[in-house]
Amino acid sequence: MKSIILKSTLARYVNFYDRYASSVPKALYSAKKEKPDLSGVLYPLPSRKKDYTCYAAYGDVLWLGAPNGLTRYDANAENDTDKVQFFSASRDLPDNEVKAIYIEEGEEESVWVLTSSGVANIILREISPEEKALTLTEETEKYVSRRGMCTQRTLTVPRELSSVVPYGHSDNSGSFTCAYAVGELCKYAVYKKKYGAEDERTVNARKSAVRATEACMLLMYIPGRGDGFVARTYLVPTEPVPDDGLFYKKMGDKAVCLPTTDSKKKGIAGKEIYAGAPIPERLSHLYTDLGFTDDGIVYKGDTSSDEITHQYLLMYFFHKIMGEDDKELDEIVQNAAKNTMKHIIDHGFEFHETSTGKPTTWAKWSKSYFSSPLGWSDGCLNAAELLMYLKVTMHITGEKGLWEETYNKLVNEEGYAGLTALHNERFFISSLFEGVEPVEGLMYGDNMLATCSYWLLITLEENKELKELYKNGYRGWNGTFRREHNPAYDIPFMLSCPEDEIDTAALAEWFRRVGITRLVTSVGLSSRNDVPCRYRFGGEKEASWRVPPDEFPISKYDRNPYAFRDHEGGRDQYQVESAYIYTFAYWLGRYFGLIEEE
Amino acid sequence: MADTSRVHLIGNAHLDPIWLWRWQEGCGEVLQTFRSALDRLNEYDDFVFTCSSAAYYKWVEEIDPDMFSEIVERVKQGRWVPVNGWWVQPDCNIPSGESFARQALYSQLYYQEKFGKICTTGYNVDSFGHNAMLPQLLFKGGMTNYVFQRPTPNENPNIPVTFIWESADGSKVLTYRLPHGYAETGKRGLDSAMECAEELIKENGHGMMLFYGVGNHGGGPTRADIEYLKENMVREGWHRMKFSSPDEYFKALTIQFPDLPLWKDELQHHASGCYSATSLVKKLNRQAENSLFASEAFATVANKEYKMSEKTEDFRTAWREVCFNQFHDILCGCSIMEAYDDVRDSMGHAMNLSAKIYNEAVLRIARKIDTWIDGVSDPVCTEVRNQDCGRFPRPVVVFNPHSFDIEVPVRAYNASNCVKDSEGNDVPFQNVRSSRSNDSHMDTCFIAKVPALGYSTYWLSWWRENDEIRRVASDVTADGLTIENKYIKATFSDKTGTVISLINKESGFDYASAEKSVAVPTVIDDHETDTWAHNVFTFHNIKGIMECESIELVENGPARAVVRVKHKFNESHLSQDFILGAESRVLRVKCKAIWQEKFTLLKMSFPVNGENAENTYEIPAGFIKRPTNGEEEPTGRWGAISFDSNGDRRTLGVINDSKYSYDCPGNDLRITLMRNVIFADHYSHRPAADFNFTDEGKQTFEYGIFLCDGAPEKNGITKEAALFNVRPVLVPESYHKGSEPQTKRFIYCDKDNVIMTAFKLCEDNTGDVIMRFYETSGKETRVNIVCDILDCGFKADFNANEIKTFRINAEGRVTEENFLEGCTR
User: Does residue B400 sit in the same domain as residue B481?
Assistant: First the structure.
């Protein structure tokens, strides 16, 4: 298996200034505005050659200004994609109309850019891949983490991270935090091996991993229903409850369904359900340490299979990496796995919402769901998810019994194993039915769910025929996720199907070009001359090439990385997201020895 | 889910515009059939008629506009369903990828204009085989479904009835294989088809199609057929039937959410003799494709930079001729002999249009180049003949239409004693025998380096008798019957005229020996088959090996070395010039044959020694790996055999300029150069007659030998084949001032495995430019493309074997489109 070779690379450090701010060098205002001669440049540039209005040189590197942004041209860059880098509003510039460029004398590549509405100072600084991971983690822990849950937070002042509001939830707090936790667990394992258990770096990594795991496990216990039901997220009494889904407020051993548009529509606003099952103190300390009690805790229901799938991924990794080190938490993990598994089996392979008496909207693994028009296409992934849950439950608890019996029945009698291999074909038919191409019809978050499910299934399945079947099923996803060159998908794939070829150079590019902050700032592609817009069959617009992450709008794994997007609107510069997008992939690669750093 | 399966009755008329008749009769057949179909539509309220081929609609529009209006109305009502967004039902193996793009472009835009919508179902119910790239070629032409028939279940039982067909780039189309013919008619035929459909519904769990209507020479559904079907629409214990169309069938199939198998291969074989029969039409097809590519590219450059008027309409006319002649019974060489007179005229029209535009384009460009030499117009007293100005070298400009830089031998009229490039550097050249018989009898052959879609100016000094010729060192040498350059060393037998040593100088591996020589002209007996070679899939019955009549080294210079070999077999003759150019990776073989052997094939044989042999063949816009099982295979511009020898993977490839058929029994790669059988001989029911034969008489063609280690597609064979087929053109120039430099490129593409197949103006007359490229090596590739004359530079990610079409507007903004250029969006 080929390794992913990572090197130190230049990262973008950007600060904005008002025009004529005292810290802006005066030389910027008097920088000469001369059109560059680009006639010999045989390389696509983001602006038309004739549109560049000014330039400055840093050694052999040319910085070029145009009305649609700033271009850095380094003909000697080692990697093709790094030869031309584009800097644009609002991530790197106050606006796109570049008026003048001035490069400070010195060893560091520090570029001052005057635009119509302000000044940007862009410093390119060499950073190692690991330093990038640590920098991003620091940002997440400091600004994003909400009692250990790492998803996203809103800012009150644009670009000002310190202005994060003290609350904020996500529909998928569990999912995203699970991925973050897995990254932290892998980091802990890497450091423990490299530096020893007592080293400060290892100790800190362990703390971070434990906290993230506890936060995720808390979601598995916090509903207090005692039936293995898992919450999407939870809020303490000081956090506002959004009108977005089903929320339950705990009071004593009951929880009342709060009035929201959704709960009113379903006719369950005000309905009380059981909430008296105890929460392990090992988990509840995350809010009791802050002075809160169970009363008044609000949790979000209508949980999807996304949450469950990520939770089982985390449970597998926690048990594998820290099970021996932290038996108390491991026991909590094992019980959570069993309770939730039992819930699913008891409810006919569906996640049951007590207040409605019906399955939740997006957590159905039953054959009846699979025979519905929507479930017909979902069935392949969902079958793999369910089989994975059973395998993980058996693996971490060491118990067989009901889990094995159910697994065997699903595989041998219900056709679930065979179903896992039909995704490619069924997804195509469904897309045709919808009048779109598969890449247009895809929920991009499903790529991660498929990764979790097939990867662990292949890892844990011992039967050769079944393993091969699952591998073929995994390959059936190639059409949609292989093109992303996202190491979070490709590293698990490399581990699962080592005989298949993966473009490790493309993965290295991804690591190299992820930025050093997860501040959500938009960038537009439509003004770029070097990015053709591709019209898909169903009308969706895509870029003809995968623009590097630091020139693409910030997004989680659940967005099309080719989406031909423009400015994001309201969230622009008012949000910061979890670093898991980088740390999960990076530490996974390090843990499994697939990343080599030069 | 409930069983909603139905038998969809597809009323159709298979129309061959040329086959056992000429096109004029085919045209009449279309008019009669369309009238008949409209009458049936008037008589039966629920009857639906399905018909393909934009060319037929255009005939009707031009000849009978009233009837065309009736059709337009019926299309609006959904009762007349145009299918197959292509000009005709072409052969689906021979046309190039670009040709398939044009089939879609000109047809779908026609349908859009006339009917307000494009076709979503591809439909080639009689074509003889279907290349593995068709899913992409259909999908990018706006089609999501496909209907075909051949090979039939008897010929290839592995192909399912309904399946998802995927090409190497990942494109998919929902595909239906006709299980029971496209022209069922009469009670017996319909009963049998109904039983078959019912059985298949039970077997597969979803609906089926039943095609009915008199066909081949048109006709369509008869009243008796329609009424019989209406009587049987509902039968106890049977699934219901309904008058329908392929579009409706595929929609209904999708709604049934069937689990369909995925097919990632080609669909072969039916008529294995068709890819070599009637060399004339194959050659015309390749020449027209090549000419139109080059002409359109420079016409577009000249339009954008040198004030040449738009020639879109002319190119549309020319391409439509080419598309028409790609009809399966025409291009497969199985029509009557006189039909090929029409084909020659039609293709000649296309190529003449192309040649005139090409000439105008390159001259417009050349006239702007600064070729002025001070003093050249001073009055002097010297005799001036032809292009000789006496004291100064003459400029010639070489144009390269490809998207990659080239370095190749080119030829200019008249002899020279010195050739220099625009920087004043000496260039390897030699004077070679000209095709005329006056003056010096010599032309100049020199090595030209020309940038991508660009030109280079060279300066040729006039040679006079007794002039000393300046010999410039190059990598070409010759010694006896051995010729070599830096890539290849070939030694010939003076006894057999075959190659007894063929060394890849990069690896040192020798592909041939005295015991097992290569380039062996082998005559195959072909008495037992018809023109199609129905039910015959191999041609292995060797009649004899051609005997060597003479062999000699006829040229030995710095530009090239040439060995001429002459063979004979009975009264047939073959002359081959083995030409090894400086810096050339291909040993080019220029052939002339006088063929008299009836019921034969001529194959050139390249047997190799090794294990784990595998063939790789070019197919439209891609390549395919096939086993070395000896079956006759449809092939594009190259075929190759790769094999293991002492732990190394070796490859021998054979490129061609006009051939489409190879085989490989064992380790013997053989290109089929001719197939001389009776015209339109259907299942060989031959009366006693003095028949005409498909490849009788003089034949000219070229093939080339390419050697590499590893897979051919990953070592540049497609690029070599492109260059082998589309050569640069040389324009003699005069002395003039000009604004342009002596060397210029108009495009830059940084990856060798991404090749341009079109550089044209958009069909919507906006002046936007269309560029089309495809990936040739089977690997994902990011490419950088820069075109300064369009003010554009952009990147694109190509999947393996993906075709991408880009549209560049006046502001240099680029969109990626399908073959329809964004005109239907």
Answer: no
The shortest C-alpha distance from B629 to chain A (Å) reads: 27
Say yes or no: ipTM exceeds 0.90.
Answer: yes
Same structural domain, A192 and A243: yes
Label residue A1 by pLDDT band (50, 70, 90).
confident
Interface membership of B1 toward A (CB under 8 Å): yes
* pLDDT score for B389: 55
Average pLDDT of the segment spanning B180-203? 95
A53, A25 contact by CB (below 8 A): no
- E strand map for B596-712: 600-607, 611-619, 622-626, 633-634, 638-645, 648-656, 661-663, 668-676, 697-709
pLDDT band at A218 (very low <50, low <70, confident <90, very high): very high
Q: Is residue A107 scored above 90 in pLDDT? A: no
Segment B142-159 shows an average pLDDT of 96
Tally the residues of chain B: 825
pLDDT at residue B143 tops 90: yes
Asked if the bond preceding A90 is cis, omega within 30° of 0, the reply is: yes
Q: Is residue B209 part of a domain?
A: no
Cα Dmax for chain A: 78
Residues of A in contact with B786 (CB under 8 A): 41-44
Report d(CA B301, CA B449) in Å as an integer. Answer: 20
Least confident range of A161-175, A389-403, B45-59 = A161-175
Name the 3-class secondary structure at B632.
Answer: coil
Residues B505 and B617 occupy one common structural domain:
yes
The maximal CA–CA distance of chain B, rounded, in angstroms, is: 103
Pick from A183, A14, A203: which is nearest to A94 by CA? Answer: A14
Question: Using CA atoms, how far apart are residues A88 and A399, in angstroms rounded to an integer?
Answer: 55
Is residue A26 exposed (0-12), middle (13-18) or buried (19+ Cβ within 10 Å)? exposed
Name the domain count of chain A: 2
Same domain membership, residue B487 and residue B456: no
Cα-Cα end-to-end distance for chain B: 36
Task: Give me the amino acid identity at A430.
Answer: S
Are B486 and B432 in a shared domain?
no
Chain B interface test: which of A79, A419, A425, A560 (most B C-beta within 10 Å): A425
Question: Residue B58: which CATH number?
Answer: 3.20.110.10
Residue B78: both structure tokens together: 């959904």
Dump pLDDT digits (tens) for B767-823: 999 999 999 999 999 999 999 999 999 999 999 999 999 999 999 999 999 999 999
Provide the phi-psi class of B307: left if phi over 0, else alpha when psi is between -120 and 50, else beta.
left
CATH of the domain at B432: 2.60.40.1180
pTM, two decimal places: 0.97
State the nearest Cα–Cα gap between B796 and chain A, in angstroms. 5
Residue A548 has pLDDT above 70, yes or no: yes
Pair type for strands A119-127 and A9-17: antiparallel
- Closest partner CB to A533 (pick from B172, B174, B816): B816
| Alpha carbons A560 and A318: distance in angstroms, whole number | 30
Report how many domains make up chain B.
Answer: 5
* A426–chain B nearest CA distance, Å: 7
Are the C-beta atoms of residues B53 and B88 closer than 8 Å to each other?
yes
Same domain, B455 and B481: no
Q: What is the mean pLDDT of chain B?
A: 96
Cβ–Cβ < 8 Å for A449, A504 = no
Q: Which among B144, B170, B796 has the least Cβ separation from residue A479?
A: B170
Do residues A95 and A220 both lie within one domain?
no
Q: Write down the pLDDT at residue B383.
A: 53
Structure tokens at B560: 């090239």
